[in-house]
Amino acid sequence: MNAMELLPAYLVCDTLLVIAVVLHLAIYLYYANKFTHWKKKGVPNPKPLPFLGNCLMPPSSEAGHQCLFIEDMYNSIPGAPCVGFYVFGRPAIVIKDPDLIRHVLVKDFNVFLNRNVAPSKEDTLGTQNLFALKGASWKYLRMKLSPSFTSGRIKKMFPLVAKCTAQLSDYLQEHLGQKQTIEVKETTAKYATDVISTCAFGIESNSLKDPKAEFREFGRHVFHFTRYRTLEIMSLFFMPAVVKILNTSFFTKEATVFLRKVFWDVINHREKNNISRDDFLELLIQLKNKGCVDAEDGEKPTTKSDVDSTLFEFNGDNLVAQPALFFTAGFETNATTLSFTLYELSLQPDLQKRLRAEIRDIMKSTKGAPTYEDVFSMLYLNMVVSETLRKYPPLPLLDRVCLQEYQLPGTDVVLEKNTPVFISLLGLHRDPNHFPEPDRYDPERFSEDNKRHLKPCTYLPFGEGPHNCIGGRFGLMVVKTCLVHILAEFEVKPSKDTEIPLKMNTRSIVLSTLNGIHLEFVRSKVQAA
Ligand code: HEM
After folding, report:
1. Distance 522 CA to ligand 1 centre (A)
2. How many whole angstroms from 397 Cα to the centroid of ligand 1?
3. What does the sequence similarity comment in the record state about its family (predicted)?
4. Using one digit for the tens of pLDDT, what is the confidence trace for 480-516?
5. What is the C-alpha separation between 107 and 110, in angstroms, rounded?
6. Domains by residue range for the chain, with CATH
7. What ipTM did this prediction achieve?
8. Pocket test for ligand 1, best of 125, 469, 509 (most atoms within 8 A of CB)
9. Which of 462, 476, 480 to mutate to test the pocket of ligand 1 (most atoms within 8 A of CB)?
C-alpha cells in the first residue's frame, strides 16, 4: 500500500487543487510582471492577452492578417511614434515615426545590423543566405554579392527575361480565346518561377508549359500556408524560442535536397563543358572559384586581401543558399506585384488606357521589341508599379533586432539589448497622414512632381539602408517587362468571378489573396497598331 492510498480522497483532491491554483497564480504574476515592461518605459502598448501577449490576437479587421499583426500593432495607437507589444512574454516594438525609422534602418544601422528572423541551425539553406545571415558574415556576403546586382549585370539578364515574357505571351495566346477569365496570381507565379529559375539556377523550369514543373511545385509548397506552416513562419519571424522547440526551417529537407541537386548538376555541367551564361549562377561560379565576381568596365578589381574565408566560405550549402533565397524572395514578390497591378488596372479602365497609350508608343518606336532601357524609361508604367507597391507591399514588414541598449533619438525610451524591432510597411503605406485616401489606387501619387513631396521613410517597398532589397532592380525589370507585353496584347477586365474587394489570406506572411485574382482577358488592338 503506498502513501496516496493511505490519504483520504478529499485530501488528495484539495492538495491538487491548491497546487493548480498556486501554479496558475505564479504564471499569471510572472506574465503580469512581464507585461509592465513597456508601461515602465513610457511606451504605449495595446492590451495584451494573458500568456499570449499580442501575437495570436484575432485580426482587428476583416482585411487583417493573422501573420501580419504588425500592421494591427501599427494602427493600435494612432499618433504614437512607436508601439510596444508582447510576443508571449517577450517585449518587441513597432517603430512608426519616419525619423525614428531612418535612425533604425540607416543612421544607426550598426545597432540594428541583424534581422530578428532566425531559422533552425540545421536548415543550412535558411541560415546561410543573405536574408538571414548575421553580423560581419552578412556584411561580407553582401559586399561580395552586390556586384551581381549592378544595372550593367542585370541588363545582361534582360534577354533571359524577355524570352520568358515571350513564352508567357504564347501561353496566353494559345490558352485564351477572344475573351476568357484566368486566375492571374497562378499564371504570373508560373511566369516569375520561369524567370527566376533561369536567372538564379540557370535552368528552364517550364512552369508555364508543364503543370507539374518541379520548381513551381517547390514554390507552391514554400508559400502554402497550412496552419502548421503559419506557425512555423510566425516562429521564424517572431518567436526564436519556438524555432528551437519545433526545429523550424524555412527550407524543408525535401526542398533542400531538390535545390542542392539542381544547383550542383547545372554547375558541374557548365564547368565540364566550359559553358558560360549571363546569369546569377555564373557570378556564383566566379565567387566559388575566385572569391569574387570578375570586375566589369569601370569597376575596381578585387584583390586577394578582399577575400576573407573566415567570414564566409563560398562552398557547399553556402553557395546553394544564395540562389535558393533569390528564387524564394524573387518569384512570389514579382507575381504579387504583377497580379495586384492587373487587378487594379482592371477596375480603372482609364488608368489602363493611359498606360496602354504609353505602351503603344514604346512598341511603335521599338518595332515591338523594347529594350531594358526602354522599359525603365516609361514614366507612367513606373508610376503604376510604384502605386501597386505602395498599396500592396509584397513583403509587408521589416524586422531588425537591437544589438545593444539604445535610446530612441528625441525620446526617453531606452530599448534593451536583443529587443526585436519591426516596421510595418502596410501600416506606413496605408497611413492617411502619409498617403491621403490610402485605399484609393492612384498612380498620380508618384508623378515626378508629387513624389518629390513624399516624406523620407514613409514609402519603403524594398526596405531601406544597407539591408535593403538587393534584387529590387531585377524585380522591377521583370514586372515592368511583363506588364508591357501583357497589356500590349490584352485588355484586362473584371469578370463575374472577380472578388471585389479582394479577401486577403490571413495566414500568409507575404501579401496574398485568399481566392486568387480572376480577370477577363480580351485581345487588345495595340498588337495590330
Ligand atoms: C517586387 C519585387 C520585390 C520586392 C517588393 C522586394 C522586397 C524586399 C524587402 C522589403 C526586403 C527587406 C528589406 C529590408 O529589410 O530593409 C527584401 C530583401 C531582400 N530581397 Fe527583395 N524584393 C523583391 C524582389 C527581389 C528579387 C527579385 C530578389 C532576388 C533576385 C530579391 C532578393 C532579396 C534579398 C537577397 C534580400 C535580403 C537583402 C539583405 O538583407 O541584404 N528580392 N526584399
Report:
1. 33
2. 12
3. Belongs to the cytochrome P450 family.
4. 999 999 999 999 999 999 999 999 887 788 898 989 9
5. 8
6. 35-523 (1.10.630.10)
7. 0.99
8. 469
9. 462
